[in-house]
Amino acid sequence: MTRALSVVCTLLLVMSIGTNAQTQPSELLVVDTPSNVTQCGVTNLTWSGGLPPYTVLLNSLDATMPAGANLAAGTFNTSILWTVTQPAGQGLFLIVADFGVSTANSKRFVVQSSNDTSCLPSSE
């Protein structure tokens, strides 16, 4: 329950910054679920609709991962390149929040393995 509360608080904080109730998006905010996500690889994350600027958060149902890792804040783009620093097997999903207080989630996806471990913390 603490993890869920932390995620909700993070989202409310993000949404409260610069809220403009008179501005309406022309399209609903939609987050695309990335495919072919590999450990230490680079993945293009995309979304559409809503009102910029956007905040992009990475989240997991795994209690060992911090809730709401911020991948981008205040971007006006509808895509970012993300270097995957999570290990293979990690189940993740994206949350995008916009200026108009809308949020959208991707579907859950799993990081696939690769021979590249250069981005992972050493196990010393």
Automatic annotation (TrEMBL):
List keywords of the entry alphabetically: Signal
Keyword Signal in record: yes
Signal peptide (residue range) = 1-21
- Signal is among the record's keywords: yes
Q: Report what the protein is called.
A: Secreted protein
Organism of origin: Mycena venus
